[in-house]
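To the wet lab folks,

You asked to see what we're planning to order before we commit. Fair enough. Below is the target structure as tokens, and below that is the sequence we designed to fit it. If anything looks off to you, flag it before the synthesis order goes out.
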């Protein structure tokens, strides 16, 4: 229960994307966390089925990350960014580059995903200017895609009201529909994906390829409901980019760092983009952390005499923060040494089977995702596939009441349990999901 003082303080801030008055109907104030669980100030326990928000990939207060941070705190926690770089930041660059696909090892660390996306958009525009294609400035994203809350990242997103409240937005951002938009018009998911992928080329051609700088996509789209395209979809997009000198950016802020059964979803799909943007899980929830990772050769375009002014005209105060880099190194080492990519694949198969059991209620259209990143689409019935937003709204409340933290949208819900979980933990989590869905159905009169 919130105190009157806390309630007054809440009205001096805001909960992300949430109406304060609605939040006060079912307030939730956390006071501590450990492993798979978070606790409110009354010490009620909640199973954190989504790692906070796809962040605590190794659970809360992981001992290896905490120890790395303790040791780093004894050395240096901030380095003057206009004068130099810390030694631990250079170690982080090497470490991250060692687990990325192919030659993606030109790394700039940031303090979050939105910063990483913002940097990538600027990096691509400047790269084209300095490599003989100065007219390229447009980016093509997807409707329902989400890339962050800063203006460039928001403009690249296709999330409706999250954008329209702040229009007009910067020019040069275009969108196509994700494959789910067309799925009922095709006989197969594969054919639908081919059509959706080819729509990128239609836009490039009609906009004039000499003006299109990049395509930016989440390999698996969270805000769209864990939309999981086919591998062929990304092979087609990669070929389109190569034909038209368009750079491909993978937003792996959510999909990165073992969740899909590979270190990056790019590796799971077998398609290498030109840039990967990361965030969230990179710091394991212990420090704000992100990174822009580009092909090594792209970095060459930013080297030259000072008088040529070709250095990247960008910077952030906490980019490459030493304490965050120490956390990031520990996070990567734990994933590699414990072979957590393989674990995510095996555990993810078990999780998918458990979630498919929910089809017994007649309101699950599809279970989607890879590895331990999974989403469940909710419908009124599996004959008409009509939407059932009241069910999602009810599930959001019953889940919290039952001590379960997960991502709930009116039309779907998603989970991504920390990689420290085992099958018994998945059973516990899915039991809570089953109970919460059953109660949500009852609340909607079903």
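Sequence we intend to order:
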């Amino acid at each position: 229960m919130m105190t009157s003082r806390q309630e007054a303080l809440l009205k001096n801030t805001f909960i992300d994307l949430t109406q304060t008055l609605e939040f006060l109907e079912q307030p939730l104030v956390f006071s501590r966390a450990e492993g798979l669980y978070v606790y409110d100030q009354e010490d009620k326990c909640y199973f954190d089925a989504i790692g906070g928000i796809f962040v605590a990939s190794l659970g809360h207060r992981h001992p290896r990350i905490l120890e790395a941070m303790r040791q780093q705190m004894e050395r240096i926690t901030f380095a003057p960014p206009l004068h130099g770089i810390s030694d631990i930041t250079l170690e982080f660059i090497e470490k991250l580059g060692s687990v990325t696909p192919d030659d993606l090892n030109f790394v700039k660390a940031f303090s979050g995903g939105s910063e990483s996306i913002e940097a990538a958009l600027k990096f691509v525009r400047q790269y084209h200017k300095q490599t003989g294609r100065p007219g390229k400035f447009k980016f093509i994203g997807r409707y329902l895609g989400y890339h962050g809350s800063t203006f460039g990242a928001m403009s690249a997103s296709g999330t409706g009201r999250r954008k329209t409240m702040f229009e007009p937005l910067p020019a040069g951002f275009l969108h196509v529909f994700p494959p789910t938009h067309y799925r009922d018009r095709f006989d197969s998911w594969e054919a639908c994906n081919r059509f959706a992928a080819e729509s990128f080329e239609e836009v490039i051609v009609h906009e004039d390829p000499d003006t299109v700088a990049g395509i930016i996509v989440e390999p698996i789209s969270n805000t769209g409901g864990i939309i999981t395209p086919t591998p062929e979809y990304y092979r087609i997009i990669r070929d389109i980019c190569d034909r038209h000198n368009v750079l491909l950016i993978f937003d792996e802020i959510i999909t990165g760092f073992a969740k899909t059964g590979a270190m990056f979803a790019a590796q799971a799909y077998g398609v290498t983009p030109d840039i990967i943007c990361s965030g969230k899980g990179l710091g394991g929830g212990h420090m704000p952390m992100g990174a822009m990772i580009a092909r090594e050769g792209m970095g060459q375009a930013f080297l030259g005499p000072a008088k040529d002014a070709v250095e990247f005209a960008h910077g952030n105060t906490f980019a490459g923060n030493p304490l965050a880099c120490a956390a990031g190194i520990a996070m990567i080492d734990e994933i590699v040494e414990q072979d957590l990519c393989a674990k995510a694949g095996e555990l993810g198969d078990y999780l998918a089977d458990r979630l498919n059991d929910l089809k017994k209620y007649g309101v699950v259209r599809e279970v989607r995702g890879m590895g331990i990143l999974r989403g469940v689409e909710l419908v009124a019935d599996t004959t008409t596939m009509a939407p059932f937003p009241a069910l999602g709204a009810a599930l959001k409340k019953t889940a919290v009441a039952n001590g379960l933290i997960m991502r709930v949208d009116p039309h779907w819900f998603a989970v991504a349990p920390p990689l420290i979980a085992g099958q018994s933990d998945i059973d516990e989590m899915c039991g809570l999901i089953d109970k919460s869905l059953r109660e949500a159905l009852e609340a909607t009169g079903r």
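Structural context that might help your review: The domain at 63-337 is CATH 3.40.640.10 (Aspartate Aminotransferase; domain 2). The longest helix spans residues 423-443.

Thanks,
Computational group
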